[in-house]
Design a protein that fits this description.
Elements lengths: L1 H11 L3 H19 L5 H4 L5 H19 L4 H6 L2 H6 L4 H20 L3 H10 L7 H26 L5 H23 L8 H6 L3 H9 L5 H24 L1
Helix pairs in contact: 1-7, 2-4, 2-7, 4-7, 4-9, 4-10, 7-9, 7-13, 9-10, 9-12, 9-13, 12-13
InterPro entries: ABC-2_transporter_component (IPR051449), Motility-assoc_ABC_perm_GldF (IPR019860)
Protein name: Gliding motility-associated ABC transporter permease subunit GldF
Main location: membrane
Length: 239
């Protein structure tokens, strides 16, 4: 598994794709937080709420870009057959691919800690609520893990990296925002809207971001991660 993980990390940084994706992620979040209209400097409040609200949307593109080549390039280059001849189970291959891509996404997230320390330093009185910030970062990590598994799973269905990117992007958007949008329909306004919204990632991400660890949220994220890893494993076995 670790050999596959190392290979995935090397592939991510062997070309400009990985670097560009990370730079764009940091640049867009930085512009939204400090430069664009209604930024944190204009509002005068020491909070990272805008960052944690906007970051998932940028993370959709980042994880899709990171994972789109995971299996697609293996199929296209003919190296998947070589990979399968190695003494590795399907679970080890899938786990290695997921872990390598997830580490790249975490590397992209680490520099955003600068936002926390910078805003705390700039605050004239009370700084950022540390508990809420920790909860929001934890929620963002779980959300990133789910998006990564969706991306790896999407890449296992095609030998075209661009197609894998589009499938991953659409699937992430539907799971993140689709159920929330569906719950807003008038037909579900008599109580079903809450339960429909609970099926979406955004509901549980917002729940963890409040700084409260709920078992239901953890089970939800871990179940989604396991489900997409399982689908990827089954797809590999069919290949």
């Amino acid at each position: 598994m670790w050999s596959v993980c190392k290979k995935e990390l090397a592939q991510a940084f062997s070309s400009l794709t990985g670097y560009i994706a990370i730079v764009v992620f940091l640049l867009v979040n930085g512009l939204v937080l400090f430069v664009f209209r209604n930024n944190i400097l204009e509002s005068g409040f020491a909070t990272l709420d805008d960052f944690f609200s906007f970051a998932p949307w940028v993370m959709l593109f980042l994880t899709s870009a990171i994972t789109m080549r995971s299996f697609a390039d293996e199929y296209k280059g003919g190296t998947f057959e070589v990979l399968r001849t190695r003494p590795l189970s399907a679970w080890q291959i899938v786990s290695g691919k997921f872990l390598g891509s997830f580490i790249v996404a975490i590397i992209a997230l680490l520099p955003t800690l600068v936002y926390y320390f910078a805003i705390n330093h700039l605050a004239s009185t009370t700084g950022i609520d540390s508990g809420a910030a920790v909860g929001s970062y934890l929620g963002l990590l779980f959300l990133t893990a789910v998006f990564t598994t969706i991306g790896v799973c999407s890449s296992s269905f095609t030998n075209n990296a661009v197609v894998a990117f589009i499938i991953s992007l659409l699937a992430c958007v539907l799971l993140y925002f689709g159920f929330h949008a569906l719950s807003q329909l008038p037909v579900f306004s008599k109580g079903a809207d809450y339960y429909i919204e609970m099926l979406g990632i955004d509901f549980h991400y917002q729940s963890i971001s409040r700084g409260v660890l709920d078992t239901r949220d953890l089970v939800y994220f871990l179940s989604l991660i396991f489900f997409f890893l399982l689908v990827t494993k089954q797809n590999l076995q069919h290949k």
